[in-house]
Design goal:
three-stranded antiparallel beta sheet, globular, single chain, four-stranded antiparallel beta sheet, alpha+beta
C-alpha cells in the first residue's frame, strides 16, 4: 500500500485495474526501475520479470533469502535450455530435465544437513543468492549473457548503522 500511495503521488495519471501486489510491483519497476524498486520493497519474495523491450529475463530474490528461486541449465548438448522455479520440484518437472546429482552438494548435505547457497542437489542448477538478481539476455547464446547483481547485502545494513547515532 505504501508503494501504491507513493506511485499515486508521483504519477497522477496512474489508473489501477485492481488491488494486487503484482500490479503495484510492475508499475513500480516501470516507474523507478528494478534496482530502485527493490530497495523500496520489503518482505519475502522471489519473482521472474521479463523485459520484452530489451529481451531480458530477471530472476529476483528477497534480501534475506526467505523465498528461494532456483535456476540453471538442462537438456542435451544440442538443446540446452534455461529453467527456473521456486522449488526443485518445479524445475525437475520440466520435460527436458536430465540433470544428475551434484556430488559436492551431496557431500555438503551429508556434512551439514543442508545444501548451502548457491548450490542445489543437482548439477547445473543453482539457488539464487539472497539479495541478488540474475539478468539473462535471452537473445545471446552463451553463458556470458547471464549476470548476477547484488542489490542488498550486509554492507547495506552496516551503512545504515554507521549513519545512525549510537546510544
Amino acid at each position: 500500500e505504501e508503494l501504491k500511495y507513493e506511485l499515486d503521488n508521483c504519477n497522477k495519471s496512474n489508473k489501477w485495474r485492481g488491488h494486487s501486489d503484482t500490479e503495484i510491483l510492475i508499475e513500480s519497476i516501470n516507474y523507478w526501475g528494478l534496482t530502485n524498486t527493490l530497495k523500496k520493497i520489503t518482505g519475502m519474495f522471489a519473482f521472474a520479470l521479463y523485459d520484452q523491450k530489451y529481451q531480458k529475463l530477471f530472476l529476483v530474490r528477497d534480501r534475506y533469502g526467505e523465498k528461494p528461486i532456483y535456476w540453471g541449465f538442462t537438456g542435451n548438448h544440442n538443446k540446452k535450455v534455461i529453467i527456473f522455479g521456486s522449488d526443485l520440484k518445479a524445475v525437475k518437472a520440466h520435460p527436458e530435465f536430465n540433470n544428475q546429482i551434484n556430488r559436492e552438494s551431496l557431500t555438503l548435505f551429508l556434512d551439514y544437513g543442508y545444501v548451502p547457497d548457491p548450490l542445489s542437489i543437482y548439477e547445473d542448477i543453482w539457488k539464487l543468492n539472497p539479495g541478488h538478481f540474475l539478468e539473462i539476455n535471452v537473445l545471446a547464446e552463451t553463458n556470458q549473457s547471464i549476470t548476477s547483481t547484488e542489490w542488498w547485502g550486509i554492507k547495506n545494513i552496516l551503512d545504515m548503522n554507521i549513519h545512525s547515532p549510537i546510544e
